[in-house]
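Quick illustration, no need to memorize.
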Amino acid sequence: MKRPYVICHMCTTIDAKVLGDRWSKLPGGKAGGNLFETTAARFGIDAWLVGTTTMKEFSGRAAKLRPPPAPVRPGDFVANPKAKSFAIGIDAKGVLRFQSGDVDGDHVVLLITERVSDAYRAHLRKAGVSYLLCGPTRVDLPRAMNKLYTTLGLRKLMLEGGGRLNGSMLQAGLVDEISQVVLPIVDGGGPGVTGFFDPPGRPPRSAAASLRLLGHESLKGGAHWFRYRVRR
């Protein structure tokens, strides 16, 4: 199956928690978000993928959907075929309400399901948001990755999801590289705080993946950046 090369890039505490609004600044006054952005930029990847919860931070207000004036054409919809950079989100239930088709210059693409209404798809079309149908009731991740490759031509993708999406992608064998910026912070929040990889359901009987170290770099403020290749 053709799909993009996927790098999961996250900024975490030493106990692998990812909710940065819980953390204090690093020595020297820098926030974890600064290190996340500067290290991510070094990959030069113009497409990033997040889950529904994270994408809500970028979508518009919760506007009420209106019935479409005419039937909506079935299938996928690409609003901007000439887009060079992409903000990709998962929205299985049709809850995001983008009012425009870009996030800081990146074209918005949503991975949706057949359960979403015509009114929702009409709203996305009007807003200039692209969407790809990726399953009947839930987003089939391998199918979604294949569509990103074949429909949008994406060859590399930065996965920046929450633990649920990261874990699901890893378990599905869709993560090729893991990039982790480890901050000198202990969250201590336990299982109730989102971690790096928190897939839904019961834990598998064996580890999801073994890794090969690609590189390590010490960063300012006592942080460390590790890059790993996922072994198949």
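The helical segments are 32-41, 52-55, 118-127, 141-150, 163-171.
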